[in-house]
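Tokens as discussed.
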């Protein structure tokens, strides 16, 4: 499951780096969408659409959905469904069933790669990438 998370985070970081360099964005890109650049469009090989608290990005038939709204300083949040959608559409990753996905997410929580998003004491069913688990411009040290 570490490999899947690494590819997920790398995909997001590569997209965000492309968007940031194309439109010269400073700060959280979610805050800037619709102001400094269009809420939906294409940058390099990425087709993107910002919506609500998140973004959908497609490149080479790989579908990546994630939440980016700056809720608590952690900028990559995802539901099990969003993460599984990425895994299923990625040609280098093996499709896993719901049970194995949940076990994998629990493993990542225990390894402190991700945490469960809790708001006002309520577990939301959403996970967030722990920034300190990602070193440098990509997730090579994840």
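Sequence:
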């Amino acid at each position: 499951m570490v490999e899947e998370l690494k590819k997920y985070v790398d995909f997001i970081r590569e997209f965000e780096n492309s968007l940031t360099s194309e439109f010269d964005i400073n700060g959280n890109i979610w805050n800037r969408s619709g102001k400094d650049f269009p809420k939906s469009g294409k940058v390099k090989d990425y087709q993107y659409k910002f919506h609500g608290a998140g973004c959908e990005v497609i490149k080479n038939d790989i579908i990546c959905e994630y939440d980016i709204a700056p809720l608590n300083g952690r900028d990559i949040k995802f539901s099990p469904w969003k993460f599984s959608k990425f895994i299923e559409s990625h040609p280098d990753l093996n499709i896993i069933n719901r049970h194995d996905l949940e076990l994998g997410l629990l493993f990542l929580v225990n390894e402190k790669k991700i945490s469960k998003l809790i708001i006002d004491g309520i577990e939301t069913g959403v996970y967030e990438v722990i920034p300190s688990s990602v070193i440098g411009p990509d997730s090579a040290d994840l």
